[in-house]
Design a protein that fits this description.
Blueprint lengths: L2 E6 L3 H10 L5 E7 L2 H11 L3 E5 L7 H11 L5 E5 L4 H10 L3 E4 L4 H12 L1
Parallel strand pairs: 1-2, 1-3, 3-4, 4-5
Helix pairs in contact: 2-3
Amino acid sequence: MKKRIMVVDDSRIMALQIRKLLENSDYEVVAYCENGEEAIARYGEVQPDLVTMDIIMPGIDGLETAQVLMYEHDKAKILMISSLGDDDMLQELYGIGAQGVLFKPLTREALLAALKKALG
């Protein structure tokens, strides 16, 4: 059975890219949310195995959204995806309990390895 992935990113292009990179893999995108508010509202109905979360989004950013999801759903697993990578941000991501960080641009190999590690 495929692992269920929820993609949270304000860029529909990134969501389509992730879906394309996961073709013929053990993972499937079961939901796409354009912002943190939508992700928080839909998480319970979708019940994904893992959430990929963009960090910079309008409204509630990815860090705050991840914190809310992990507080409200103790089994939530979050893989942060960003084009940023400074040390302070990385410490904050791991401090909130994110399962990992993946940097853009994404490759199939890097995405699959990060998903496997995050769900491992």
